[in-house]
Amino acid sequence: MSWKARASLLLTLALLVAPGLAGTQAGAARQLEIFSWWTAGGEADGLNAMFEIYKKKFPGVEIINATVAGGAGTNAKAVLKTRMQGGKPPDSFQVHGGAELVDTWVKTGFMEPITSIAQSEGWRNILPKDLIEIVSFQGEMYSVPVNVHRGNVLWYNKKIFDDNKLKAPTTWEEFLKVAETLKAKGIAPLALGDKNKWEAAHLFEDILVATLGPEGYRGLWSGKTSWTGSGVKRALENYAKILPFVNSDHAAGTWDSAAQMLIDGKAAMSIMGDWAAGYFTSKGWKPNVDYGFAPAPGTAGTFVVVTDTFGLPKKAPHREQALNWLRVAGSKEGQEAFNPLKGSICARTDCDRAKFDAYLQSSMADFAKNKLVPSEVHGSAAPEDFATQFNDIVNLFVTRRNVAGTQKALQAACVSAKMCKK
Ligand code: GAL
Prior knowledge:
By secondary structure, the chain is of the alpha/beta class. 52% of the residues lie in helices and 15% in strands. The protein contains 18 helices and 15 strands. It has helices at 3-28, 41-57, 76-85, 99-106, 115-121, 123-126, 129-134, 158-163, 172-184, 198-222, 230-242, 255-263, 275-282, 319-330, 332-342, 358-369, 384-400, 403-416, and strands at 31-36, 62-67, 92-96, 111-112, 136-137, 140-141, 143-145, 149-150, 153-157, 188-191, 267-271, 291-295, 302-306, 308-313, 371-374. A hairpin with a 2-residue loop joins β5 and β6 (140-141). α10 crosses α17 (384-400). The chain is globular and about 60 Å long. The termini are far apart.
């Protein structure tokens, strides 16, 4: 064989072998799969902003954006469970701090502690103690909080309110008056889209906080407040008074379609976590110009905390890349890029306020001085078993409005989830 023929044979062999190599170890080591349910408006924008930072810091890694649509993880959580239990975890996944992380994944042995990276990144000094506590178990940290969302916010279309000389209601009594005025003028008062169930439960959670107060609401999770007592009864009665002001097609909509109703002027108000602010931002809608905001009626002084975090599953296929992802998610740069788009504030305490709009600056101020309570609908206050039943029970209430039956069902759910004694 001539040297030319030998060289060309070698080249052919090399080309045949190379893609094989790239597809195995070398290729596998250069991927990062991040699992979340962030597909709508500001959610997707925020996530992409963090990906961009990752790409800059760790070039050459292919990021697989594994999203499963459906607010609050309606569909994503089931897909994640199948993957985790089947031994096919993503490299890292979105999970709420509190029961959702600890009960579902940590106590069951699916997660690796990330305490040593928390140490080397200095997170213990820069994250609020309350947040560290809800992502920890037996002295080890298991995920890094990337944000703080506020669950109890009333949003309103500013033009509708100004045109009708209305002020944001501060109590549910005021809300009913405002709602009557709007209804009389043919304007839908409250936008709701509860196709995925949790949205109606979210509204009820805010009514529980308003009716029971922060201590009474906390008592639901410590066993001090009874599901069959007069407080929960009043909360359900309040809910029944509010429901007639909700759009009649609510069962066909989602949280973001409800936010869109405000933008389109099809409804005046909505009660939703501040990922709605991220949605408004993604549509060019501005705080204090296009939309107004206030604590959900009756909840001023209380901040319902929703925190998204990322951890490290055991058997993460690209562990090194996953650790780098956690570094980005916990960094000042990562959180400052993510949160202004996502509609949340940094979990870190050292972010630059100037990077945040008027709504988010007000959320920062309230987070620092309000009483903090955990959200049940968004995974922090109670185990998943209870959360799922809570969504079902509240949705049944929305159609049947049976106060006593609902209280009984909530108590039974509390017992079956082992949160209450019989
Ligand atoms: C929450 C989550 C938020 C936002 C919202 C709607 O559970 O914490 O980040 O994504 O659902 O999807």
